[in-house]
Write a structure and sequence with these properties.
Distance between the termini: 110 Å
Strand content: 25-35%
Family: Belongs to the peptidase S8 family.
Radius of gyration: 42 Å
Number of strands: 36
Protein name: Peptidase S8
Number of domains: 5
Pfam families: Peptidase_S8, SLH
CATH topology of the largest domain: Rossmann fold
InterPro entries: Peptidase_S8/S53_dom, Peptidase_S8/S53_dom_sf, Peptidase_S8/S53_subtilisin, Peptidase_S8_Asp-AS, Peptidase_S8_His-AS, Peptidase_S8_Ser-AS, Peptidase_S8_subtilisin-rel, SLH_dom
GO biological process, one term: proteolysis
Helix content: 10-25%
Structural class: alpha+beta
Number of helices: 14
Length: about 800
C-alpha cells in the first residue's frame, strides 16, 4: 500500500487545514514548484525567518523605497508561511509548497492599511519582475478604473491574481471582485462559509478559515480569515502549474473551479462559490477544457456568477451550453465573449420572470441583457450549425443594478418631490458619479430626522439636508457600509432638500441599495381649541370620537356630557402615546370628583364605566408628560337603562325583556347587561320556566353529569317534576349546553301540556316529517304560538337566544 507523502516538521500537526484540503494526497503528485515566482503583495515578510529564508527571492519595499521588504506587521509573514514554509527541515511547520520562490512586495503600511495606488504599484511590479502568481490577502471596497486596468494588465501578461474576499460578512472586496481574479472566501469547521467571510456573485471557491503559520520574529501562531484562505489557493495553483506548465491563468482558474468540493449542493453559491479547495483533485483529476460537462439541456444548466470570467467549449455547431445565474437585484448583465475563430453565438435568455429573448453575441462587441432579481438561464450555441471542430471560449459576465423609481433626480432642480410624511424608500447608484435629490415640502411646523443606510460595504454614504434659502448640513461621520443620521431637528414651513450620495472617489455604478428613512412628525394642533378649564369644556355627543393632545406640562383638557336619563356611561380613552400615563377623572355638575383612572404601564388605553343619573358631567384629562406629535381619542357611550339594563333599548324584544325582568322571571349580568342575543343554556331555560310558571313541586333527579351541587338543581328538579325537561338516552342532562330552537319549542309545549299534532305536513321548509319535534311544531304553528322566519324556515338546530326564549315564554304566559 502506498504511503502518502507527509512532512516531518515538528509543528505540522497544528496545521489541521492541510487535512481539510487533502494535501497529503496532493503531495503524492507534487510537493513544490520553484520554477515560477509567487509574489506576496502585503506588509512584507520576515526575511530572517528560518522557515522562510530558503524559499525567498528578491522583492521590493514600496512603502520605504530603498529598504528591504521587511515585515513590521506580521500579516505578510503569515501569508508566506502558508504558501512556502520550508519542509522537512526540523523547524516549525511545512508550507503547501516545500520548495518555492516567494517574492515579498511590501505595499501595505505597518498598521495594515494600504492605498489603492500602492496596491496597484505592487501588482504591476510583481508582473514586470517575473511573478507568475500574485497573492493579495487584502482588499478595498471601492471599484476603480485604475485597479481594473492593473488587473487586466496582469491577465494579458499571463499572471494569475489570487485575492481574499474579505472578513466583514458583507460584499466581496476588490481586487477579488474583478472578473479575472480568483476570489477566495473562508470555510468554517462545519464546511460552510464562515459567517464573516464576504460573499457575493464574485466568489470562486473557499479554503479553511483557521490556520497555523509563521509569524515575525521567527515565531509561529494561529491566524484566521480569508487572508489565510487565499494563500492556500495560490500555493495549490503553483502545484497545478508544476503539473500543467502550459496552462494559461484562465485554465488554472477553471481547473480549481471544476475540482472544488461542492458545499452548497447547487454547483455554485454566493457563499462558497464552486466549493472547497481540493488540492488532491487539482493534481489527480483530469483537466477538462469544458468544465461544464453535460449541460446541453436547461435542467442541466451549470451555475455561474453574474460577475466573473468562465471558460468552456463547443464540441461542434450542434453542441449547446446551458448556464444559470442568480441576479442579486433587478438590473442588467453584460456578456463579453472571447472566441477563436471569431464565430457568432446565438444566446437565448430566460429571465426570472419567465420572459425569453434572443441575442447575437460575438467577439466584436458585448451584449447587455435586462434581468430580474432571481434565477436566469442562458443557452449559448454556435450560429454556424455546420461547424465540425471543437471551439474554446471565455465568457465574462458583469452585473449593473437597476435605475431606481426616483430617477432622474441627479440635480437639485430635478429633486423628486416626496409627500410630507414619514416614509422609507430604497434607491440605487446606477450610473457614474450618481447622486439622488429629494424634496420634502413642509407645510406645518414639526420635527424631522433622516437615516441613510446601505446594504453593502462598497458604498460610503453621505447625507445632505438643506432648507431652501438656508445653509445645508452635510453628514459624513461613518465609513464604508455605515449609516449616516440627521438628528431630530425642529423644522418650519418650507421646502427641505435631501441629497444622497457617495463619498468622493466612488465613481462607477454600485451593486447595492441604500435605504432612506425619513421621520417627519408635524406639530399637531388640538382640534377642540383651548379647553383647559371646566367653563371651556368641549361638549361631547355620545358615540362620537374626540381627538386632542396635551402640549403643555401640567396642562389639562376638559370635556362635558349631558345625561338625560339614567344611563350606563362608558368612557374610553385610547391612543395614549407610548411611555406616557394619562389620567381620566370624572366630576358631577358641581365639580365634585366621582372617579378617576390612569392607564397602566405599557398600555395605551384607559376606561371608566359608571351609572349616572340625569345631569351634566365633566371629564378632565391630564398626562405626566406633554406631547404634541399624536392625538389621543376620547369617546363616551351613553346607554340609557330600560328595565335596569343598558343593552336592550331599541332591541326587538325590549318590551318583553323589561316585563320579564320586572316580574323577576329572568336575571341579567353585571354592568347592567342583559345580553339578549346570547344563547341560553338548558339550565338557564329551566330556571326561567320555573320562575315564570311559579312551579313549586320538585322531585329528586340524578344524571351522570348533574347533581345537587349544580346551581340550577332546584330549578331542574321542579321542571322535571312538571315533565318539562328530561335527560338524554345516555343518562346525561348537559345542563350547560346551549338550547336549540327545537328544544325550546318542545320545553314550552310541554309546559302547556301539548302532545303534538300528527296530521298535516311540516309547516317549515327545513323541518322534515322524520325530525323528532315535527309534531310539536305542527301544533304550535297551527295554534299561533310560533311563526318561524320570513323565508319559511324554523332553523331548529340554531341556538335559542335569551330574547327568543323569554319572548316565547311570555307569550304562552299571557
Amino acid at each position: 500500500m502506498q504511503i502518502s507523502a507527509y512532512p516531518t516538521d515538528p509543528l505540522v500537526e497544528k496545521q489541521a487545514y492541510l487535512q481539510q484540503i487533502h494535501m497529503s494526497e496532493a503531495w503524492d503528485v507534487a510537493t513544490g514548484n520553484d520554477s515560477i515566482v509567487i509574489a506576496i503583495v502585503d506588509t512584507g515578510v520576515d526575511l530572517n525567518h528560518p522557515d522562510l529564508m530558503p524559499n525567498l527571492v528578491k522583492g521590493i519595499n514600496l512603502i520605504e523605497p530603498g529598504q528591504p521588504p521587511r515585515d513590521d506587521n506580521g500579516h505578510g509573514t503569515n501569508v508566506a508561511g502558508i504558501i512556502g514554509a520550508a519542509a522537512n527541515n526540523d523547524k516549525g511547520i511545512a508550507g503547501i509548497l516545500w520548495k518555492a520562490k516567494l517574492m515579498p512586495v511590501k505595499a501595505v503600511e505597518n498598521d495594515g492599511t494600504g492605498s489603492e495606488a500602492k496596491l496597484g504599484e505592487g501588482i504591476r511590479y510583481a508582473v514586470d519582475h517575473g511573478a507568475k502568481i500574485v497573492v493579495l490577502s487584502l482588499g478595498l471596497n471601492k471599484y476603480s478604473d485604475y485597479m481594473s486596468e492593473i488587473v487586466r494588465y496582469a491577465e494579458t501578461k499571463g499572471v494569475l491574481l489570487v485575492a481574499a474576499t474579505g472578513n466583514e460578512g458583507n460584499s466581496v472586496k476588490y481586487p477579488a471582485a474583478y472578473p479575472t481574479v480568483l476570489a477566495v472566501g473562508g470555510m468554517a469547521a462545519d464546511k460552510k462559509a464562515h459567517k464573516l467571510s464576504n460573499s457575493g456573485p464574485e466568489v470562486d471557491l473557499v479554503a479553511p478559515w483557521d490556520v497555523f503559520t509563521t509569524a515575525i520574529g521567527g515565531r509561529y501562531e494561529h491566524k484566521d480569515g480569508t487572508s489565510m484562505a487565499a494563500p492556500q489557493v495560490a500555493a495549490v495553483c503553483a502545484l497545478a502549474w508544476a503539473k500543467y506548465p502550459w496552462m494559461k491563468p484562465y485554465q488554472i482558474r477553471s481547473l480549481l473551479r471544476q475540482t472544488a468540493e461542492d458545499l452548497s449542493g447547487n454547483g455554485w453559491s454566493p457563499g462558497t462559490g464552486y466549493g472547497l479547495l481540493r488540492a488532491d483533485r487539482v493534481l489527480k483529476d483530469p483537466y477538462s477544457e469544458h468544465m461544464y460537462k453535460r449541460n446541453d439541456r436547461k435542467e442541466q444548466a451549470t451555475p455561474i456568477s453574474v460577475s466573473k470570467t468562465v471558460s468552456g467549449s463547443f464540441e461542434n455547431g450542434s453542441d449547446p451550453n446551458w448556464f444559470t445565474f442568480e441576479a442579486p437585484y433587478d438590473g442588467s448583465v453584460k456578456l463579453e465573449l472571447e472566441l477563436d475563430p471569431k464565430e457568432e453565438i446565438a444566446v437565448t435568455h430566460t429571465d426570472a420572470g419567465g420572459g425569453v429573448k434572443d441575442y447575437s453575441l460575438s467577439a466584436a462587441g458585448p451584449v447587455t441583457m435586462p434581468v430580474k432579481k432571481g434565477k436566469s438561464y442562458l443557452k449559448l450555441q454556435l450560429k454556424n450549425a455546420a461547424a465540425k471542430r471543437k471551439l474554446e471560449f471565455k465568457l465574462t459576465t458583469s452585473f449593473e443594478i437597476y435605475k431606481d423609481a426616483y430617477a432622474d433626480n441627479g440635480k437639485q432642480f430635478k429633486a423628486y418631490v416626496l409627500p410630507a410624511q414619514s416614509q422609507t424608500l430604497k434607491g440605487t447608484f446606477h450610473r457614474n458619479n450618481d447622486q439622488d435629490w429629494y424634496m420634502l415640502p413642509i407645510t406645518q411646523t414639526g420635527k424631522l430626522s433622516v437615516r441613510l443606510s446601505v446594504d453593502t460595504n462598497r458604498m460610503d454614504p453621505v447625507l445632505f439636508v438643506q432648507k431652501r434659502g438656508e445653509k445645508g448640513k452635510t453628514i459624513d461621520e461613518g465609513g464604508e457600509g455605515e449609516s449616516e443620521y440627521f438628528p431630530v431637528t425642529d423644522v418650519y414651513p418650507g421646502d427641505y432638500y435631501i441629497r444622497v450620495s457617495n463619498a468622493e472617489g466612488y465613481i462607477p455604478p454600485i451593486t447595492g441599495e441604500y435605504t432612506l428613512a425619513i421621520q417627519y412628525k408635524p406639530k399637531l394642533l388640538d382640534p377642540n381649541g383651548p379647553h383647559d378649564k371646566p367653563y371651556s369644556a368641549t361638549v361631547m355627543q355620545p358615540g362620537t370620537k374626540y381627538q386632542g393632545l396635551l402640549d403643555k406640562s401640567g396642562g389639562a383638557n376638559w370635556f362635558s356630557v349631558n345625561i338625560n336619563e339614567e344611563s350606563l356611561v362608558e368612557l374610553r380613552l385610547s391612543g395614549i402615546p407610548q411611555n406616557i400615563r394619562m389620567t381620566m377623572s370624572a366630576y358631577n355638575g358641581t365639580l365634585k370628583p366621582i372617579d378617576s383612572v390612569t392607564n397602566p404601564d405599557g398600555t395605551s388605553e384607559a376606561r371608566l364605566s359608571q351609572l349616572w343619573q340625569p345631569g351634566v358631567y365633566y371629564i378632565r384629562l391630564t398626562a405626566d408628560t406633554a406631547f404634541d406629535d399624536r392625538f389621543y381619542e376620547l369617546k363616551a357611550e351613553v346607554k340609557p337603562l330600560v328595565g335596569g339594563y343598558a343593552d336592550i333599548k331599541g332591541h326587538w324584544a325590549e318590551a318583553v325583556i323589561k316585563q320579564a325582568s320586572e316580574r323577576k322571571i329572568i336575571d341579567g349580568y353585571d354592568q347592567y347587561r342583559f345580553m339578549p342575543d346570547r344563547p341560553i343554556t338548558r339550565a338557564e331555560a329551566a330556571a326561567v320556566l320555573v320562575r315564570g310558571l311559579k312551579l313549586t313541586k320538585q322531585k329528586e333527579v340524578r344524571y351522570t353529569d348533574f347533581g345537587p351541587d349544580h346551581w340550577a338543581y332546584p330549578f331542574i328538579a321542579k321542571a322535571a317534576q312538571a315533565e318539562i325537561i328530561d335527560g338524554y338516552p345516555d343518562g346525561s342532562l348537559a345542563p350547560d349546553r346551549y338550547l336549540t330552537r327545537m328544544e325550546m319549542a318542545a320545553m314550552l309545549a310541554r309546559s302547556m301540556k301539548m302532545s303534538g299534532k300528527q296530521r298535516g305536513t311540516s309547516p317549515f321548509a327545513d323541518v322534515k316529517e322524520t325530525d323528532w319535534g315535527v309534531s310539536i311544531l305542527k301544533q304550535l304553528k297551527a295554534e299561533g304560538w310560533i311563526t318561524g322566519f320570513p323565508d319559511g324556515t324554523f332553523r331548529p338546530e340554531n341556538q335559542a337566544t335569551r330574547a327568543e326564549f323569554v319572548t316565547l315564554l311570555t307569550r304562552t304566559m299571557n
